[in-house]
Queue: 3 jobs
Job 1
Amino acid sequence: MAEAYEPDPRRWKALAVTLAAGFMGLLDVSIVNTALPSIQRNLHASNGAIQWVVSGYALTFGLVLVSGGRLGDALGRRRMFLFALAAFVATSAFAGAAPDETTLIVARLLQGCAAGMLTPQNSGMIQELFRGAERGRAFGMFGAVVGISTAVGPVLGGVILAVFGDPDGWRWVFYVNVPIGVVAFGAALRLLPKTPPRKVRLRSEIDFVGILLLAVAVLGVLLPLVESEQGGLSRLWWLFGIAVVFGFAFVRWERTRVRLGRPPLLDIRLFTGTPGYAPGAAVGTLYFCGFAGIWLVFAMFFQKGLGYTPLQSGLAVTPFALGSAVAAAVAGRLVPRWGRRLTVTGLSMVAAGMLLVALLATLVPPSLTGVVFIAPLLFAGIGGGMVISPNTTLTLECVPPTMAGAAGGALQTGQRIGTAIGTAVLASVFESVVGAAPGRFPLALSVAMCCAAVVTCAALVLAVLELRARRARAVLTQGDKDRRDAETSAADIQRG
């Protein structure tokens, strides 16, 4: 018999605390981009070191997502959330105080690990605290946080630099996490639900071999991509083969763990036996591949091509962030009624907005692009808000709460990989067009946006196929129900 659900009266306040902390972790993926020139001047850092300030965080963030989610499942999400938040605050302070480039890189690697352990506790906590329509609303808020944090990082980074100035203004990009994190930690201690202490034997509960195999597989994919601007694809292409070998070994190992009755790191049956999980994860990965990569392209177009300041460049793409934030909050409430149709509609709007930007970039004078792009970016942003939160809700809706952390971690790992692929590919496309025809930045933007739209359309195709599959499952379920009702009626007639 299913366990009775008794809603925690403080669940919405607890969600606000976890989302605030999650926002900081996701924001630090992009906010530092604005501060890179200042960091390089102040620390006399090399180009390679500066690249690792960005890519090192993204790398370790992606590496520990699944492991952090599984630790939350096994040890308790409140405990893991508090530990990861404390680590994130400490490493943020460490990064802000870094006296040289090496220390800053180490701090960013550690900060990425802390953020990667923190983020999956959000989806796990939502699965645990909410049911039914409320869960859709909660995931809507989570989707809004993901969308906003991705888009507004450059804006907030520019504001912080403008307020604190040179030479040490960049340090406040990291220091700002400290007071926010301390307040969030105190609120989490008071609001997050306590669970009965569990006697957990780490050697039996935690799949350390699986953690190692998955880490090498993810590293093999991410490292060449995050190093792409430094020639990583040409130097480290062989790591993709390593990733395939270790990924195959990970799947075999996890299946063996399940067969022997031991807790796996990531139960592979999530992808084969949980309705909607595999296609939802694929849709999310492809969408982030197209969506997340456009921000670096826009930054290069506005700053290198049009001479915008970092703050002006960030403000130019703010319409997407605003549209995404509002739409995500609304879409979360509509998931029970509209389901996968929301994702299909949203992906169509994002692709259309990207194609319109691509067209306008080649038609209007460069001096007007910042204004002309407002409408298509707002339109695409509204569509984007209809993608992230509904897709997360629908992907995780059939996942048991005991596996929610690992499942959410795997979902976000796909998003991180998609982000890395999209950023590397779209930046390479943009730079190759500019390099072939110096000064033709509008054409480069147009080509890159068309590529992003093609990838988004691939996600749209998968979403349409999943929509059809859901309808087929609903028909079968209704047929089974009608048959059971008929059998019950026949039995009643015979007894009568």
Job 2
Amino acid sequence: MENLTKQQLTLSRIQLIADISQTAQCNPKEFLVVMSLISELAGQALTGEDQDALCYHGSPDEAH
């Protein structure tokens, strides 16, 4: 449950950063900083299992 709360907090922060950057109409350099922040936060929120699940596009029940 604690992991879910941490992910929710991180996603809220990512959304806030993205929303502010859209309304502020950042210049290209500021936009790169914003994308770096979002990437860093997302990377901290995802566990190894989460990243593996994102790379796998099928379900475990499907035959290959």
Job 3
Amino acid sequence: MSSTRTLIRGGLVITAADEIHADVLIEDGRIVALAAHESDVAEGWTGRTIDATGKYVIPGGVDAHTHMEMPFGGTFAADTFGTGTRAAAWGGTTTIVDFAIQAPGQALRAGLDAWYAKADGNCAIDYAFHMIMADVNESSLKEMDLLVQEGITSFKLFMAYPGVFYSDDGQILRAMQRAAHNGGLIMMHAENGIAIDVLVEQALAAGHTDPRYHGEVRKVLLEAEATHRAIQLARVAEAPLYVVHVSAEEAVAELAAARDKGLPVFGETCPQYLFLSTDNLAEPDFEGSKYVCSTPLRPKEHQAALWRGLRTNDLQVVSTDHCPFCFVGQKEMGRGDFSKIPNGLPGVENRMDLLHQAVVEGKLTRRRWIEIACASPARMFGLYPRKGTIAPGADADVVIYDPHTEQTVSAETHHMDVDYSAYEGKRITGQVETVLSRGELVIDKRQFTGRAGRGQYTPRSLCQYLT
């Protein structure tokens, strides 16, 4: 058994609230104290000492939107809970919140138990679950109350994917009313799927089969319309709302307008919308299929509105929506029909680095980087202050981050179990050096020292922006 005491010396501790030169003292998996450099708090300290001089000491990332082993369109996401959580650790993320899926006609409990079984004994870092509701009826509405008591406090609904996950406005309203009653948070995939399906059919009939048409049929206005409709339904139900993977300027405007009214409406975006665009979807030789996800990538001009939303807090969280499919054998299922390309991108390993690059480029402050990647997702989903900060009493999920090392993102060096990188060749300044999960080293100076099964399931309290 490794020492249960660790001292991290000499670093710049960055949280959402502060930047302080401090030493971090860890005992039995928890942070017990922060002390000024050269103070006598650590005098006579016995245990492991990590030198973080010249480095950042930051909370482990909280990725509140991943899909490990997710079934989609006749295949499964390429990362298991084993490979996906290991890759997350390499990227400085120490907690994921994945989505358990209710199959139509099945109880919520059956879906949740299936995901418990997939993850149990396989995760390198801590994990929690949201619940995808595919069937909103009297029985599943009652089950929501039981799940909230069990620490599954958020429920995802889809305005997209008719015949798979789609809920109509009546079902959405009922689920929102239930959430208003039991304290749960409704997460919404906001795209008008009924209208999109018409445009898909028309595009294919016209011979428009290439990946770029995936972006063209999933129109900005249909994301904005669905976002607006979700907000109004939430107002009627007097329920809070969290809109996932916001990609378009017009959708951000809907969120901003709601928040200006003081409504409990929240928004998430993802690195792919901040760094990639329809230019990627249009890459020749079917390469564009690598970038097919929903909501889709948008024209570059939408990126400015997303960055602005992150600075003004109209968007609170950056998650990855990590749902990787290999190019060979999986993305290729959609050759000749873009609607058959599995939707999703790999990214769980890249999020912290990409957002640090935004700090380097002056788009975000260092504290805002930690806020949108660690603290806000932890607060949003009832994990704070155990996760998302460096403070006495918090879990010792700590990353030593070298802000000066340069790296080039590549599938050849990443640890996600997928045969391409969405950011291939991108130069980044900054790199994760060492990662502790509850005080245990899982990455030690760029060596993986963790193991499958040491990650723990973590029940969640209610959204802390509402309590």
